[in-house]
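Let's sit down with a protein and look at its sequence and fold side by side. Go ahead whenever you are ready, and we will take it from there.
>
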Amino acid sequence: MGVLIETILIGVGIGLLAGALGIGGGILAIPVLVYLLGQDPHAATAESLVIIIVTSLAALPSRFKHKQVRLGIGLVFGLCSSLGAVLGTKLNLIVGGPIVMYAFACLILVVAGVMLKNALHARAEENAALERGTDLSVHEEQTTADDVQLSWRKLPLFLMLGTALGVLVGFFGIGGGFAMIPVLVLMMKYSIRVASGTSFIVILVVSGVSLVSRLGSHVDIDWIIALLFAVGSGVGSAIGSPLSNKARASTLTFIFVALLLAVSVYTFIATSLGW
């Protein structure tokens, strides 16, 4: 009973962070499932997908309410990522658990570096806007790109990025929000809030495909742990999502970066020491 209560409480905590930062929670759920709840790395990558789907669904209502979701772009990226998700899932099933965790740590370390650079740039622009006497909400609205127009000319780019994202999702059992947010911020010029909201659409589509691809494999999913974690995470996400509107956009990005760095370092150390 103690483990079940602990699972729910951990899920709530992760859901709070995931909802506020616009990530599905996979980058947090996987280390917790492996190192705190004793799950096999392959099982953890499958269980995290269940958690991610519930967390994303819980966070979306608030994002839609604040007009922070670009549904068309999210669906296109999600569909373009589906093939990659299937390929990544197959690769996960043939690679050793420690290798999965080492690769996971290296990947999020790279993403943290890219997002840190963007956060520093965003903070400098915010400070300049404050010095001009511009309200930050007005500044953010002025610097947020309009919807990217969908066209056949952009389809190859979407397919390339989507496939790469899908491979990451399928291989690591993550929702892809941590990778999708930098793409939307750096390439589409969306604000961190719009990128976060839109990423939930991508997360739902790709995580669903990846989870279905795992069903029937030799991986044993602990459904009790997965569902209890998902319930707790969903509650936390519903609470955390509205909180994102109370912080500066650059602050959200800095928190995102700090989270990535902490998870990367812990995962590398824990895997090396065999925790």
Notes: DSSP finds twelve helices and no strands in the chain.
